[in-house]
Each structure stands twice: as structure tokens, then as C-alpha cells.
């Protein structure tokens, strides 16, 4: 027969495991949400810059600007659906997404620059698309632990979830 103290300890361990699992799920969801906005902006920026024959730095600048725009926009749409006014949604989106998007953009664009020929490959070349896909996946993986840490401390996307 199990003592009540041992039983309570078992429940505590289960509760901790469940809390960690919930935190991981929320961090994954926040990272995927952020990565979606980043990917839309990044892909669009890369397509526009490459199609116009821009250099690496101009293309990256456009891709980064669009990644932030789409990343923040997706969060603001979510907040608006939750009933938050645009003026109130903007600072929440900035607080929730800035660190995550920054990490994703730094990692993603560094990888694109480090893969030989990726930026010059052109839109019809698998080197370009394969490099971009790998860069975005690695960027999401880099942002996950930071998002988890922020959420655990009531910051980042934890602020957004307070409005759902």
C-alpha cells in the first residue's frame, strides 16, 4: 500500500511532467506561428529581390522587413479576433514577437549567406529553395528554446495567450 506522501509525490512528478509538456506545446505553437509569418515575409522578399536582380544585402533587407511585417501582422490578426483593438494589439505583438523574429531572421539569413551560391541560385533552382527551407527550419529550432524560456517567465507569446 502506498503512503499518502508517496502518492502526493507521484502526483507532483506527473504535474511537473504535464506542465513541462504544456510549456513545450505552447512554445512550439508560438515558434510555429512566428515562423509562419517569418517564412511568408522571407520567401516573398527573396522572390522579389531575386526577381528584380537585387544584390544579397538589398534582398535580405527586404526579406527581413517583410518577415517582421508578416510576423507582427499574424499576431495582430489573432489578437483582433480575440477582441483587442488595433492600438492595443500593436504593443502586445511587438512584445510577443520581436525577440523570436530577430533570432529567426539572424539565423535564416546567415545560413542563406553561408551556403555557397544559395542567394545567387535563382528562383528556378532547387539550391535556392532547398537552402531557404533548411535555413527556415534551423531558424525555428534556434528560436524554440528562447520562446520556451520567455513563455515560462510570462513573456513572449504568453502575453498573446492571455488574450485568447
Describe the structure.
- The chain has 164 residues and is mostly helical.
- 82% of the residues lie in helices and 0% in strands.
- It has helices at residues 4-51, 56-81, 86-114, 126-152, 157-161.
Task: Provide a brief overview of the structure.
82% of the residues lie in helices and 0% in strands. With 164 residues, the chain is an all-alpha fold. The radius of gyration is 20 Å and the shape is globular.
- In round numbers, the mean pLDDT is 86
The shape, in one word, is globular
N-to-C CA distance:
44 Å
Number of helices: 5
- Please outline the major beta sheet: none
Residue runs with pLDDT of under 50 for 5 or more positions: none
The quaternary structure here is single chain
Key structural traits:
globular, 82% helix, mainly alpha
Write the topology of this structure.
Blueprint: H1 4-51, H2 56-81, H3 86-114, H4 126-152, H5 157-161
Helix pairs in contact: 1-2, 1-3, 1-4, 2-3, 3-4
Amino acid at each position: 500500500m502506498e503512503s499518502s506522501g508517496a502518492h502526493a509525490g507521484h502526483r507532483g512528478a506527473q504535474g511537473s511532467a504535464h506542465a513541462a509538456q504544456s510549456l513545450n506545446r505552447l512554445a512550439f505553437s508560438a515558434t510555429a506561428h512566428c515562423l509562419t509569418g517569418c517564412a511568408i515575409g522571407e520567401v516573398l522578399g527573396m522572390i522579389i529581390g531575386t526577381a528584380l536582380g537585387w544584390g544579397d544585402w538589398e534582398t535580405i533587407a527586404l526579406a527581413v522587413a517583410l518577415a517582421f511585417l508578416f510576423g507582427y501582422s499574424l499576431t495582430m490578426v489573432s489578437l483582433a479576433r480575440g477582441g483587442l483593438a488595433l492600438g492595443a494589439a500593436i504593443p502586445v505583438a511587438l512584445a510577443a514577437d520581436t525577440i523570436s523574429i530577430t533570432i529567426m531572421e539572424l539565423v535564416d539569413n546567415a545560413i542563406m549567406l553561408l551556403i555557397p551560391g544559395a542567394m545567387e541560385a535563382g528562383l528556378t533552382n532547387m539550391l535556392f529553395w532547398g537552402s531557404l527551407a533548411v535555413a527556415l527550419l534551423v531558424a525555428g529550432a534556434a528560436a524554440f528554446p528562447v520562446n520556451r524560456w520567455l513563455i515560462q517567465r510570462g513573456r513572449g507569446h504568453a502575453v498573446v495567450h492571455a488574450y485568447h
